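Figure-free illustration: sequence to structure, shown twice.
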Amino acid sequence: MSPVLEVTELTVEFGGLRAVDDVSLRVDRDSIMGLIGPNGAGKTTTIDALCGFVAHAHGHVELVGQRIETLPPHQRVRAGLVRTFQSVELFDDLTVRENLVVTATPTRWWSPLIDAIAPRRSARDVDVDGALDIVGLRPLAEARPIELSHGQRRLAGVARALATSPKVVLFD
């Protein structure tokens, strides 16, 4: 079976500091893998590099057999690689459901123009209810993030990632 994510000799450097040193890993479909280490070990930097938020100095990243290390973050998301963040940033003026719809609906540069003329985004476009069911938040779908506990906000962040129907989710 070919891996869904394969990383070969990923290295990240900041000036003269090597933050991630030749990380190689293979993630098979329907599997869970954890990066374990103390604070400052490079776990978040590795996730940032895989997602394109920091430049890597060396190495290859393949998602379902396709090299993605040169793609910008938004194209990696479109390819199926999504992540959660340590700090949950939700739109407080939107409901939980609307937060998922906004972040999971594919857009292009012209999308705001089309939406201004004929709004089209809806929960039907993405699997919002499925993502909310997985994390147990469907009863709170119409709540505003400010009404949620910290743990529920974290789960909303997970649901937001799952609503994109990703191939790989990286939890930070």
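We now fold a second protein in the same way, so the two outputs can be compared directly.
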Amino acid sequence: VNLSASRTYYFFNGSWRQAGQGSAVKNDDVVLADMFLWVRQNSTASTTLNTCGSLVPGKWKMPLHRQGSGGQDNFVALPRLGAVSLGESGLVESGAFQPSASAGTRLDELLVFDNTVAEQNKSASATYYYWNGAWHKVGAGSTVMDAEQVFKPGSGCILRLGAGTPVVWTNNSVP
């Protein structure tokens, strides 16, 4: 949990560089479709990030990691054109997300972030868990959150999975 970045890149003097690699130009390093990345801007200037790629029109599967003991963070996003709700996510139905024994004893958690707020090292704006046949939000009591659209285009979240064996998340929704 609370994993740090495996590589850090910065743009300097007209080229991309990697922290710890001296002045080596890294313009040709590839960001694969299944890689998660953060864009950290160390100024107050406003910018726009444009990405290109493809959307998955049908069933989508993603392997998720679990440790034999302890938690494991998985950085994920759904490659869908529209927002997807917790109930449509397929997390529980595919066996990727384990239901909690109680509201206070959560095995798996979904951490989401408010991308309208610009800040570094921010905490999750909401934490969700599955209990008693429905999705719930930490701090929202027994309110059912199945319709909450937490998987939004261009945004990621963290699946903090409890101990167990690796699993595959299958999502069938096509909003």
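Summary for the second example: The chain has a mean pLDDT of 89.
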